[in-house]
Write a structure and sequence with these properties.
Blueprint lengths: L1 H7 L2 E5 L4 H12 L3 E6 L2 H15 L3 E5 L7 H8 L5 E6 L14 H29 L2 E8 L10 H22 L3 E8 L5 H5 L11 H11 L5 E3 L2 H13 L2 H16 L1
Parallel strand pairs: 1-2, 1-4, 2-3, 4-5, 5-6, 6-7
Helix pairs in contact: 2-3, 2-8, 4-5, 5-6
The structure holds NADP nicotinamide-adenine-dinucleotide phosphate (NAP).
Amino acid sequence: MSAFRERYGPWALVAGASAGLGEAFARLLAARGLHLVLLARRADALARLAEDLRRAHAVDVRTEAMDLSRADVGAAAARAAEGVEVGLLVYNAAHSAIGPFLGRPLEEHLRVVDVNCRGPLALAHVLGGAMASRGRGGIVLMASLAASQGNPLLASYAASKAFELVLAEGLWSELRERGVDVLACRAGATRTPGYAASRPRRSVPLMEPEDVARRALDALGHGPSVVTGALNRVAAFAFGRLLPRRASIQIMGRATRRLYG
Ligand SMILES: NC(=O)c1ccc[n+]([C@@H]2O[C@H](COP(=O)([O-])OP(=O)(O)OC[C@H]3O[C@@H](n4cnc5c(N)ncnc54)[C@H](OP(=O)(O)O)[C@@H]3O)[C@@H](O)[C@H]2O)c1
């Protein structure tokens, strides 16, 4: 734990920390002794979590209520982290527009791009620069199994997750020379408020957020991406390596239509 803190501390910034996987990351990082900057829109949820973490782990926690879709997200995050040394960024927040592409307003798809693409890019740039000049640090981007191929009814979301995956892979190669570990976490279905709010019509095997977050933190420094969960690893191998791309799109499409069609 102290090796983790020395490599990725003393502070971590979790973007999208008030619930679900982001909350799980925050809890695990506090348990590893890192001080935290927590960002999300809901100030009350952040304040409750921060109080919990201060009490349980004697760490410092800053919170900042902000919408990560804002155009100046990099500068806003830098202000939230002003004066502290952020050695780890976890970009966890995401927006999804579920349903037929043409049936959702353009604004919603653009919000997917803002939160899921511009946000992680800007924060990786702003915070990664300081990490690289210190010669140590880590960046975790929450991607998804959906990043592997096009996905009907989730077209803009899946494309945004592919952006995060490919961004993380490129930065993994580029920044490792500067001492910064970068990882994309390709999670499958996980029991979170966000997943429940998507109102899937069928039940599928779900992972627990703590298990996904722990696996991601353990994988940091050991390669450009991790697929969490044995079932998900089989799926990622089949869809990404075994099947022709067209077949992967069609099979994922059928599964998504059963869930959300
Ligand atoms: N759950 C799954 O099945 C699953 C599967 C694969 C990948 N993932 C990925 O894992 C990550 C977390 O998913 P989750 O299911 O834990 O989501 P969630 O339960 O909906 O939680 C999302 C978190 O991000 C924050 N957030 C969302 N939009 C934001 C915005 N515009 N500005 C600031 N904060 C924002 C939310 O807080 P506020 O509402 O307070 O802003 C919340 O803290 C996402 O990147 C998702 O794509 C999830």
